[in-house]
Automatic annotation (TrEMBL):
Residues 23-270 form the Deacetylase sirtuin-type domain. Keywords: Metal-binding, NAD, Transferase, Zinc. It comes from Butyribacter intestini. It comes from the Bacteria. Its EC number is 2.3.1.286. GO terms for molecular function: histone deacetylase activity, NAD-dependent; metal ion binding; NAD+ binding. Zn(2+) binds at residues 157, 160, 178, 181. Pfam families: SIR2. This is protein acetyllysine N-acetyltransferase. The active site is at 149 (proton acceptor).
Amino acid sequence: MCLCTLDTDFVFHTMHKNVCRNEGSMEQVLEKMRDIIREGGNIVVLAGMNITYDMGLNGVNAEHLAYDVEQKYGYPNDEIVSSSFYTRRAPLFYKYYKEVILNIDDPQPSPIHYGIYKLQQCSKLSAVVTRSVYSIYDKVGCSNVIKLHGSVDENVCPRCKRLYDSHYIKHAKGIPVCEKCGIPLRPGFTLVGEMLDNGKISKASTIVENADILLVLGAGINSTLCRYMVKYYQGDKLLLLNDIEKVGDDRADYRAYGNLRDMFAQVMDF
Ligand SMILES: [Zn+2]
């Protein structure tokens, strides 16, 4: 199932009881979320792109740089990261890959990543599901991270299947090639127009279905990541923290908006 094709046929999930329990001041809502996390377990985190942007990374599509990218590269960013563009114009694709997607050489985890790791240390975290293609969650020690769109650290030689990390891509001259075979590497993330990994989608949806608490961080409920995953959630503890309110967010049982780092720190203060 390709998440990119869901725009037109997405139907807002209404099976869940539509009771708004998000009452009280934001402080009270954050306290309630903290209590739920402190007392609960089997948490699945849907980690949105705002966590990535908060670190200064651009992601694959770099929607926030649409104008700049088109000015500099002569093509819209969505087109550059498509499979057909990669096939036809690999040099420009890799220029974009190195400069825009890998804009920070050695990205460091933020307090949000450490907070998620703390959930794992408390045996409360079942999995992290994300569209992010960076290895930051692995860097802090999180296990069971499902990267639906692949990873910038898993570029592969189409012939011998050897993997190459983002450092190798970033510092290669021109198009990165396999050291052994001398042929261009395939990017480790899913390109626009390619199917997502069905095994990962299926694993993620099952984990979400069985979660006690679904914690959405840095994304709206109708974002590409959430709108597909949230419909599998059966529980009544869907918590949402994001910068601003988005259409469809009322599906969440508890939600708060503002500075993501600050709010998550409050929720994790137990
Ligand atoms: Zn090779």
